[in-house]
Amino acid sequence: MAVTQAIVHYINKGEGxxxxxxxxxxxxxxxxxxxxxxxxxxxxxxxxxxxxYGSFEADQDSYPFSRWLKACVHDEVDFAQLSRQLAERFKxxxxxxxxxxxxxxxxxxxQVLDAExxxxxxxxxxxxxxxxxxxxxxxxxxxxVGKVQLGARIELDMWQRxxxxxxxxxxxxxxxxxxxxxxxxxxxxxxxxxxxxQTQTLLKVFNNYCDTQKLPVKEASETKQRAxxxxxxxxxxxxxxxxxxxxGVIDTADPDKFYxxxxxxxxxxxxxxxxxxxxxxRGLQRFVRYSGSMKGLSLSFSEALLGEQVLYDAAxxxxxxxxxxxxxxxxxxxxxxxx
Length: 339
What we know:
Layout: E1 2-13, E2 20-22, H1 32-47, E3 52-54, H2 65-73, H3 79-94, E4 101-112, E5 115-131, E6 137-155, H4 156-160, E7 168-171, H5 177-187, E8 193-194, H6 195-213, H7 217-236, E9 241-242, H8 243-250, H9 257-269, E10 276-277, E11 289-294, E12 297-302, E13 310-313, E14 318-321, H10 326-335
Antiparallel strand pairs: 1-2, 1-4, 3-7, 3-8, 4-5, 5-6, 6-7, 9-10, 11-12, 13-14
């Protein structure tokens, strides 16, 4: 990954108050520190679960950002001007909301392999102390690199290809709907596909496939692990899961078997799995883990332990554990007076 252009603006808004925008006028110098920071932020964005995928609204009069972006791509306006137009638009949308917001709006263009991406993030900061060269303490602000408030990534090459959809991904703020709405409107972004829903559909089809193949327990577990590792690798790289590639990972002897099964299920049951999907990082855990909770109880264990250390009896609705974690065993022994 190479960062080609980047700029940051500061946005602050108290609850029910107008937005204060402090724009930067020039681009950030692309130093090793800036590249490292944006690389970490890009990885943090990739790791966020619950992404929404879509494209630009067709109405460019009501949602002009795509028009501004096109002008920038064609060198009619510079990148700094594009970012300020975006910041001003975001400010106007936030002024219509009551919620408070405070953060740094980062806009960066990156070259990832052969593709260009535009990354737009709202970053949080927290108070910190720094020690200067004179060993004096002073107040500062620390960027929360692992905490992206909300953001978007636009695959610029995909966007410029006619008929291409879902070239934009969005992560939503967990603090308020108004901020999410303002951000989506300033970009003119549609919401067409939920990565959680796509991942759930993939898991359902995959589990049905394993059932139809009547795989032995150990072989089924190994198959799930291979599928999980492939999908996880794609998510970590910010790329889509290719169903045909996944099929080859699942069964090397018959690499099209799962792919053909997916096609049959889509035709028969309307299971909306395209040739490539956007997977959700957290949802992929269900390939290899069982988990659940109820009042006073929480359980999570590796799928590979089922039938070995963890036994399930459906008739009595019970789980039996063979071999407890040492720390849990000590706690139980202490509370029972056996310690």
